[in-house]
Amino acid sequence: MIRRKLKAIRKKVAGFQGSMLGYLPVKVAEGVIGILTVKVYTTLFPPEVYGEYTMVNTTVNILFLTLLGWLMQAAIRYIKGHTGREEDKRRFFSTVYLTMAGAYGLLFLLVLGAKLLLPGFLEGYGPGGMLVLALMMAGYGSTQLLLAILLYMEHRVKNIAILLFNVTGKLALTVLAYNRLGPSVWSILLSHAAVDMVSFLGAFLLSGTWRQIRWSGYDKETVRDFMRYGYPLIGFSFVMALLNMSDRYIIRFFQDRATVGIYTSNYAIPSSVFMMLMMGLSRGVYPKLLKAHYDQDRDRTARHLKTGAALYLSVSMPAAMGIAVLHRHLSSLFLGKEYMGGSPVMAYVAGGMLFYGLAEYCNKGWELTANTLPILKKSFLAAMANILVNLLLVPRWGYMVAAASTLGGYLLFFLASYRGRNPAIPFDLRIRELWPLFLATGTMGAALLVVNRGMEITLASLLINVMAGIIIYFGVLAGTGFLGRLLHRMREV
C-alpha cells in the first residue's frame, strides 16, 4: 500500500515537472535568491562600487550573448535530433564544445590585441585583473551553455542542483570575501569567477558529455546547421544586448558610476522577477512546442503556443502591476538606503519586461522553423530607437529617461514582432479572449492603490499588499471563468 502511494506521488511529481509549470518553482527560487543578492550587495557596497560591478557584469553578459548565445540556442534547437545514436552524440557534443573553445580563443586574441594596441583599454586592470575577467567570462558562458544542455537532455535534477549552487555560492562567497577584502569590487568579481568556474566543471562532469569529445568528432555539416540557425542570432544577441544594457554605458558616459549603481540596482529587481517568469515558463513550454513541431502537428503546435502565451500573460500582467504600484516598498525593503531614490525605474522596467516576454512568444514561429533573420530585423529597429532616445535625452533628463526608453523599446519590439509573426504557425492575441486578464489586473492595481494610501512602508505591509493582490486578481479571474478555461487547456497540453 505504502509502495503504491509513493509510486503515485512520484508519478504526480514527474507529471508536474514535465508540465508547462514544472520548471517555474526552480526559477522562482533562483529569482528570490537573486533579489536577496541585490539586497546584500546594495547594503554592503556603496553605489560607485556596485556601479563598477554592474559595468563589468554587463560587459560579460554582452560578450556571452554575442559569442555563445547563438551556439546555446542552436544546441537547444537541435539536441533532440542529433543525440540518438552514439555516433550522433559524439559528433554533436564534439562540435559544440570545440566551437565554444574556438570562440573563447578568438575572444582572448581580440582582447590581448586591444590591450597591447589601445593605451586606454581596460585601464586599471593588470595581468591579475585580466585573468579574473577571463575566468568570469569563461565560467559564466560555459555554465549557461551546460545548464541548457543538462535541461534538454532531461537531467533536471542535475540542472537544478548546479543552478542553485551557482546563485547561492556567489552570494555566500561574496560575503566571505567582503569580510577579508572590504567593500571592494574585487570581493564580487573574484567570488563570481570562482563559483562560475566550479559550476561549469560540475555541470560538465555531471552531464557525462565529456566522454563524447573527440577531435575527429568535429563535424562541419553540424556547424553549418548551427550557423544557418544561429548566425542571425549572433546579430540578434548583440542587438538585444544593446536594447537590454546599452543604457548603463550611456548613463556612465554622461554621469558617473554611482548613478549607474542606483539605476541598475532598481532595474535588477523587476528584471529578476521577469526573467524568473520568462525562463521558468519557457523551459516548460518550449520542449512541448519542439516535440509538436518535430511531429509535424501544426494544430497542436499552435495550441501549445497560444496556451503558453496565455499562461505567461496570466502571471506577468499582475507581476508588472504589482511592481508598478509597490515600487517604493520594494526599493525601501530590498535595497540599501542610498539606492531608494531610483525606485520609479522599477515601474518602467516591469512594463518593458512584460512586452519583452510576450514578444518571445510572437517570435517562436520563426525559431521553430529555424528562420531567425526576421527576429533580428525587429530587434534592431527597437534597439536603435532605444539608443537614439537615450543619447538625446539622458544628458538632459537623467537616468529616468533610460528607464522609460526601456519600456518604449520593448513595446516597439513586441508590436513589430506581433505584426511580423510567422504565418506558417498560427498565433494571435484576441482581446475578446484576454479581457478577463485586463479586468483582473486593473481591479488589483486599483485596490492596491487604495490599500496603500497612508500605509507605512514595512515588510508586513508589503506582505499584506501582495496577499490582497493575489486574492483579488485570482478571484476576478475565477469569477469570469478565465482561470478554469486556462487550467483546462493546460491539462490538455
Automatic annotation (TrEMBL):
InterPro entries in the record: Poly_Biosynth_Transport (IPR050833)
Cellular component GO terms, alphabetical: plasma membrane
Q: Does the record carry Transmembrane helix as a key word?
A: yes
What superkingdom heads the lineage? Bacteria
Which UniProt keywords are present, listed alphabetically? Answer: Cell membrane, Membrane, Transmembrane, Transmembrane helix
Q: Point out the coiled-coil segments of this chain.
A: none
- Classify the protein's membrane topology as the record does: Multi-pass membrane protein
Q: Where are the transmembrane segments?
A: 21-41, 53-71, 92-118, 130-153, 160-178, 184-206, 226-245, 265-286, 307-325, 345-363, 375-393, 399-418, 434-451, 457-483
Q: Where in the cell is it found?
A: Cell membrane
Q: Which protein are we looking at?
A: Lipopolysaccharide biosynthesis protein
